[in-house]
Design a protein that fits this description.
The protein has 360 residues and is of the alpha/beta class. It contains 12 helices and 17 strands. Helix 2 packs across helix 5, helix 3 runs parallel beside helix 10 and helix 10 packs antiparallel against helix 11. The longest helix is centred in the first third of the chain and has 15 residues. It is globular, with a radius of gyration of 20 Å. The two termini are 37 Å apart. This is asparaginase.
Length: 360
Amino acid sequence: MKWTRDARPRRIVVISTGGTIASRWTGSGYAADASGDDVVATAAVPDHVDVEVLDLFNVNSSRMTTDRQLRLLAAVHETLADPGVDGIVVTHGTDTLEESAFFLDLHHSDPRPVVFTGAQRPFGTGDGDGPGNLYDALQVAATVHGLGVLVVFDGLVHAARGTVKTRTLDSDPFADPSGRRVGRLGFGQVDVEREPERPAPLPLPEAAIAAITSTAGAADARRVLPRVDIVMHHSDNDPVLFEAAVAAGARGIVLVGTGAGNATPEIADAVARAVRDGVHVVLSTRVASGPVAEVYTGGGAVDLAAAGAVLAGTLRPGQARMALLAGLLAESTSPERRNQLLRTLLEGPVRAESVLAVAH
């Protein structure tokens, strides 16, 4: 399906959060410091597109935090409350773009697009890819409808769900290792090859957003937001780091297993203890593609699921963590209902019941 923008003017808001697309040389390395206006000024703007800029924050995305992601989520919803806005582009660093985009997609109920983009080469360089990526993102945001949150890089369009950074420095850093891209751009058109499958969107986590806007700073925000950790299994692994996360107050842990989601009997025992203590555990894998599956015992996914871990499907660890975080932020009345909600968020499209019904 080819989407071609008509001549009606489109009003697109660019929300700037930093990243390589806004990074300049500091003398010892690159750091985000260019404003959203500076970034937009480097790019051509598609015909019949009017751009407005919102500078939300300006950080290298390795410094992303839950409170910043909640601020971004709130800013997107506040922007779309204006019916005159046709779409949003978020400029974001590539390190954690996959997490922020997926988190927003889990809460995105509006047919108007939210398009994430950024750069692999810094602001102002002669071979910079930021201007081209921004032009493409504006074109997608001015064209498509009803596809959820998207990621646009190097002429390709990806769904937020499942899309991760697969290359550290190449110009096309993003892909869904277990699925297909959504489409591509070319000759003034957006060619959509598939419609992303998404679960019904979660309600906005109003209580968490209110908490971060009423606290004095990041340290206070961390005290009111759930801690969610990632622990990786490896040869010679023991439960020490997993149990350290529990002791640190984690309300959720993503266990990154080997293969299709495997560990050891000792790890399975630690998972069972954590679940009994009210910690939610999600099982993902360090393998690049494919689903987590209950195949092996002896500490494998069979035992980990029996211990109470919820399988992450094809979500890789970073996005599995965001699903777990979203589940913890959602209002729920019992651990059982929260686990049901987590399974829905992790597995993808809703079959019988909506996420809204599960969440409430």
